């Protein structure tokens, strides 16, 4: 019966370390977001973040650096807004809809910053 369970994966040692982000990099990530006005579950949009990025840049950079150094991604940023979009056919049938998921804007920004470092590694 024990043979039915997968064995633990081998732990691979790595010299990868998260680097502290500079505000300019965070600003670049925000400015590369589309200018969509679709709101996430917190009522924030890419458009809004692009408009206010200079006013919140230092605290935003500090938040992202805390996520990286502490190794904890906030649970509140793991929730998404899912909207059903009608494709075609009868509107009464659920299979005629496709889900559109709107990820929290802060989550997108943090993930983009993480991706940049991982990709460069």
Describe this structure in words.
Helix content is 41%, strand content 10%. With 121 residues, it is mainly alpha-helical. It has a domain at 20-75 and 104-120. The mean pLDDT is 92. This is Reverse transcriptase domain-containing protein.
Secondary structure: elements and pairs:
Elements: H1 23-31, H2 46-70, E1 81-86, E2 97-102, H3 105-120
Helix pairs in contact: 1-2, 2-3
Which properties best describe this structure?
121 residues; mainly alpha; two-stranded antiparallel sheet; 2 strands; 10% strand
Concise structural overview:
The protein has 121 residues and is mainly alpha-helical. 41% of the residues lie in helices and 10% in strands. It comes from Cuerna arida.
Oligomer category: single chain
Provide the β-strand percentage band: 5-15%
Query: Could you list the spans in which at least 5 consecutive residues all have pLDDT below 50?
Result: none
Characterize the largest beta sheet: strand count, sense, and whether it forms a barrel: 2 strands, antiparallel
Number of strands: 2
Overall geometry comes to flat
Q: Strand order, biggest sheet?
A: 1-2
What's the end-to-end separation, in Å? 41 Å
Average pLDDT figure: 92
Rg, nearest Å: 19 Å
Class per helix and strand makeup: mainly alpha
Compute the number of helices.
3
